[in-house]
């Protein structure tokens, strides 16, 4: 049974778009549904972008030259746009609008919401997860024994944790075991017990 919010063709929605290669880069946009595909797992929508919420510098850095799924069958939309010809988000939107059929994107229903507030909440939850993952990855990179002579090496988790606490300040979680969960790194015996 489908438990996702269902939207109709022609409805304006808010969407998080990303591509398969760089799934950690997510763009919140306002869009209109051009086509709908229903299947056993989840509905998918082919959308036309109506508004970008990121600034032009971020879009030029990450969206230009990126490819996205265009059709339900796997066709590709490529944002091959000359960076020097676009100076603002408005200019980029006008360019997209002038060739909108070339810039359709397919998204899963779990990345769609009705309101701007809902999409920003979903986006923030995803970004929080990505930031926490990056902190965990940073700890992993700086704590390896073979990196002990490296410029950014941390000898102990306690020192790394103290620096992260100082960096995060009031933004650190207040729940018990926050840093244990944040910096959790399985030991070799944890992997030995996997089946």
Structure overview:
With 195 residues, the chain is of the alpha+beta class. It folds into 2 domains: 12-117, no CATH class; 143-192, no CATH class. Helices cover 34% and strands 19% of the residues. The chain is built from 6 helices and 7 strands. The chain has helices at residues 56-62, 89-98, 116-142, 157-168, 178-182, 188-192; strands at residues 12-17, 27-37, 44-52, 67-69, 76-78, 105-108, 112-113. The strands form 2 sheets. Strands 6-3-2-1-7 form a 5-stranded antiparallel sheet, with helices on one face. Strands 4-5 form a two-stranded antiparallel sheet. A hairpin with a 6-residue loop joins strand 4 and strand 5. The longest helix is centred in the middle third of the chain and has 27 residues, at 116-142. It is elongated. The model has no long low-confidence stretch (mean pLDDT 88).
């Amino acid at each position: 049974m489908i438990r996702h919010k269902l939207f109709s063709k022609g409805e304006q929605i808010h969407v998080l778009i990303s591509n398969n290669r760089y799934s950690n880069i997510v763009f919140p946009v306002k869009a209109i549904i051009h086509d709908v595909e229903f299947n056993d797992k989840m509905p998918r929508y082919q959308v036309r972008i109506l508004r970008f919420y990121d600034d032009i510098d971020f879009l030029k850095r990450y969206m230009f030259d990126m490819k996205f799924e265009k059709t339900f069958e796997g066709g590709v939309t490529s944002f091959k746009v000359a960076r020097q010809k676009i100076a603002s988000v408005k200019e980029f939107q006008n360019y997209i609008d002038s060739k909108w059929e070339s810039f359709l994107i397919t998204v899963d229903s779990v990345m769609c919401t009705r309101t701007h507030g809902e999409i920003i909440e979903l986006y923030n939850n995803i970004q929080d997860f990505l930031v926490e993952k990056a902190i965990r990855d940073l700890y992993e990179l700086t704590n390896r024994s073979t990196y002990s002579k490296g410029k950014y090496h941390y000898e102990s988790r306690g020192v790394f944790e103290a620096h992260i606490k100082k960096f995060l300040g009031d933004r650190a979680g207040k729940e018990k075991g926050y840093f244990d969960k944040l910096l959790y790194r399985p030991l070799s015996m944890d992997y030995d017990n996997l089946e």
